[in-house]
Amino acid sequence: MKTLEVLAFFWSRDYRILLAAAVISAFCLIIFRRAARKSLPQIAQKIVYGIIFLPLVLLPVFKCCFKVPYVFCRVCPSKCPWGISRAFIFGSFLALNLSGKFWCASMCPFGSIQECQAKILKPGRALSFRPTIMSYPVLLLTTWMYSLTLFGSGMVSYFIAGYYTWVWTTMLAAALILAAAFFVPRFWCRNLCPVGAIAGLTSGRT
């Protein structure tokens, strides 16, 4: 019962307020950094923001109404915390990245996890991938899938997994991406993440 109560918090209005406060604080940190030419320790930012945002970005990986998480929220019959907050949160991620990729560098829990994985890579074992090889095709594919929800395409039905169910293929893909990060530093961030790809386009570098 206590576990259910804890999980229920992430669907609550209080959690949405916490997310909004975290985003506002991030913009305040950016302003402070530019005004004072100083910044708070990045490790502290990663820990605090990671704790706040990890449930938001992780829950769709484990349970989703669609075979591809994060994308079909507009037509989802049972929205998860990501689906409920998606419009505000995704736009905030992009806006934060306009300032030195602040979301990617200081807030994203996936990025922080992959950084930790990179630190335990043994010298000589890291494989090298060009960051733009896969990220932009993934961004185009994600945009196409999202456009299906905008125009009411019947193709959306091909992606329906069921009523908020476990999607084993998604979990397997997540496990493979996690494992790949032990051999390719920041594998997800540099090669697959749509937010990272957009940040690369807007900043002119990867």
Describe the structure.
The termini are far apart. A two-stranded antiparallel sheet has the order 1-2. The protein has helices at residues 2-9, 13-36, 42-62, 81-97, 102-107, 109-119, 132-150, 168-180, 187-191, 194-203, and strands spanning 63-66, 160-166. It contains ten helices and two strands; from the N terminus they run H-H-H-E-H-H-H-H-E-H-H-H. It has 206 residues and is mostly helical. It has one domain (2-203).
Instruction: Give the helices and strands as they follow along the chain.
Output: HHHEHHHHEHHH
Q: What portion of residues is helical?
A: 55-70%
End-to-end Cα distance = 45 Å
Query: Low-confidence runs (pLDDT<50, min 5 residues)?
Result: none
Q: Give the number of helices.
A: 10
- The whole-number mean of residue pLDDT values reads 85
Question: Radius of gyration, rounded?
Answer: 18 Å
Main sheet overview: 2 strands, antiparallel
Strand content: 5-15%
Structural class: mainly alpha
- The count of domains is 1
| Number of DSSP strand runs | 2
Strand order of the largest sheet: 1-2
Tell the overall outline. Answer: globular
